[in-house]
Amino acid sequence: MLKNTIEIPIRFSEIDSLRVVWHGHYVKFFEDGREAFGKQYGLGYLDIFEADNLAVPIVDIQLQYKKPLLYGDTAIIETNFINSPAAKIIFEYKIFSGKDKSLSCSGQTIQVFMNPKNMDLYITVPPYFEEWKKRHDLP
Amino acid sequence: MLKNTIEIPIRFSEIDSLRVVWHGHYVKFFEDGREAFGKQYGLGYLDIFEADNLAVPIVDIQLQYKKPLLYGDTAIIETNFINSPAAKIIFEYKIFSGKDKSLSCSGQTIQVFMNPKNMDLYITVPPYFEEWKKRHDLP
Amino acid sequence: MLKNTIEIPIRFSEIDSLRVVWHGHYVKFFEDGREAFGKQYGLGYLDIFEADNLAVPIVDIQLQYKKPLLYGDTAIIETNFINSPAAKIIFEYKIFSGKDKSLSCSGQTIQVFMNPKNMDLYITVPPYFEEWKKRHDLP
Amino acid sequence: MLKNTIEIPIRFSEIDSLRVVWHGHYVKFFEDGREAFGKQYGLGYLDIFEADNLAVPIVDIQLQYKKPLLYGDTAIIETNFINSPAAKIIFEYKIFSGKDKSLSCSGQTIQVFMNPKNMDLYITVPPYFEEWKKRHDLP
User: Fold this and answer.
1) Residues of chain A contacting residue B119, judged by C-beta atoms under 8 Å apart
2) A22–C17 C-beta distance less than 8 A
3) Which residues of D are less than 8 Å from B19 in CB distance?
4) Contact yes or no for A15 and C13 at CB 8 A
5) Mutation test of the interface with chain B: which of A45, A59, A69, A103, choosing the one with the most B Cβ atoms within 10 A?
6) A80, C91, C131, D113: which has the fewest Cβ within 10 Å?
């Protein structure tokens, strides 16, 4: 299973008037996790773009909130690659409090392959992603 | 069916390097819609807080992206109240392009009732929400 | 004097843990004002780009905060064009509370003309801006 | 001279349609630097709040932009404490590209001491800040 874990400090500007991280910022945390995963395993936005001239827009996000993160804490972001035969990149996320390791939020994103010039979707698995899977022993 | 529709201009700062609205901003658009709904029907954050001393945090969000919004366009945000017997507030959203009326994004949020002091959840329907439903002929 | 005034509602996500609008969001309000000015007078980002292929990046911002805006209020954004012989676009801003009309923030931005392809600066007043000034009787 | 330096990766969501970091995000970078300084030297928002029950809102920001940061780069944020006899906290910032060490942005913030309950300003140097200065041999 391919997995990345990073830890980032909560920013003052991310706290809302209930004194917790505003829920919308977790979408950014998911992207932070995805980017760190991409850097670790060679599946970043730029890797895919430079190899195949494709962008990988998000088409679906789901977030379940369990326990809000507070100011002064850090977010531990765990990003798991979910293998699928489709022309899609699927990640699952778990965000934990750095302080007490409790689960704060979990969720999933689905990305597709798109030609950024004409916005056409790519319905077969593109070459770079195919090789990338092979390199990581994914069926 | 209770429904609110607002139209807001896309901000330059909301556009990402693919020249489309960054996907995370739609969470903000959902909140814009929810707030406008709250103002129209008396179900705003402050209404609930002032009546029952309760906050209404988001516990679940789902977003499906169909077609990205571009700079120069507006977002038409349609917010529908989904009635449920549970101690939850459920909204469904549809975001359309102001230019060609095409569907850009759809989704759903679930909110629960929470005591903001001790963060305890409220598992029965609180008084203000109960009366609010009656006022709007909701079972 | 060329001036635009718009009024926008404060968003829940803009409120920080001190229950006031987080100071960084005023930069966005300035941009909202600038965009509304651009739309009213034909000096938007896209107008300049389409006419002369130039971008107009910010090179200097100053903000003075007087009184924080609160949730439930609106921001009245007043954007004034400051004429200058230089190859620069200068705006002054005043942001007022919609509730009590008190001054919340004032400030200034300076923009220059840049070729977005090679990021070279343009040191003479470009054609579109020159004509624009004439059209508005500015020396 | 008291100084903190941190390095943070540029986020995809911080890039605008000109493929550079949107200018408003630098206000967040200044806050990142300020927070890291506060952690290193014991002058964080919570330190001051817990000691003297005071908040330290920003009343003035100035930013000068030199060279935009790009996606894939990091921001090196240098935060310098500027000593002053007034009841103010003054910081100067320099943001450099992690890649070529060129200066991207410089600026300054001024903060004052405020009672967060009634929003009254504190015009004399409060006890915690006075002791903090002594501890760091500042006149």
Assistant:
1) 68
2) no
3) 17
4) no
5) A59
6) C131
- Strand B88-97 to strand B103-114: parallel, antiparallel, or no bridges (unpaired)? antiparallel
Tell me which chain D residues have a C-beta less than 8 angstroms from the C-beta of C60: 62-65
Q: Do C16 and A16 touch (CB under 8 A)?
A: yes
CB contact under 8 A, D60 and C65: yes
Give the Cα separation of B131 and D104 in Å (integer). Answer: 56
- Interface confidence (ipTM) of the complex: 0.94
Distances (CA, A) of C43 to A112, C31, C95, C129: 37, 13, 21, 8
Select from B126, B139, B56, B137 the least CA-distant residue to B91: B56
The pTM of this model reads 0.90
What are the CB-based long-range contacts (under 8 Å, 24+) for C128-135?
Answer: C128/C47, C128/C48, C128/C51, C128/C52, C128/C54, C129/C43, C129/C48, C129/C52, C129/C87, C129/C89, C132/C41, C132/C42, C132/C43, C133/C83, C135/C42
**D100 annotated active-site:** no
DSSP conformation class of D10: P
Are residues A65 and B55, on separate chains, in Cβ contact within 8 Å?
no
- CB-defined contacts B:D, below 8 A: 24
Domains and their CATH numbers in chain B: 3-135 (3.10.129.10)
| D17 burial via Cβ count (<10 Å: 0-12, 13-18, 19+) | buried
Q: How far are the Cα atoms of A111, C65, D4 from residue D62, in angstroms, in the given order?
A: 39, 12, 19
Dump pLDDT digits (tens) for B65-118: 999 999 889 999 999 999 999 999 999 999 999 999 999 999 999 999 999 888
Extended beta strands in B1-139, E state: 3-9, 58-65, 74-82, 88-97, 103-114, 121-122
Interacting residues of D130 by C-beta distance below 8 A, sequence separation 6+: none
Shortest Cα distance, chain B CAs vs residue D13, angstroms: 7
Tokens linked to A16: 């809302």
